[in-house]
Amino acid sequence: MTGAVDPTREAMAAFRDLPLDRPIAMLNLLRFRERADYAADVDAAIRRDVGGAEAYAAYGRAAAAPFARAGGRQIWLGTPRLTVIGPETEAWDLAFIAEYPSGEAFLGMLRDPEYRAAVVHRQAAVADSRLILCDARRPGTAFGADA
Question: C-alpha angle 118/108/133, rounded to 5°?
Answer without folding.
Answer: 90
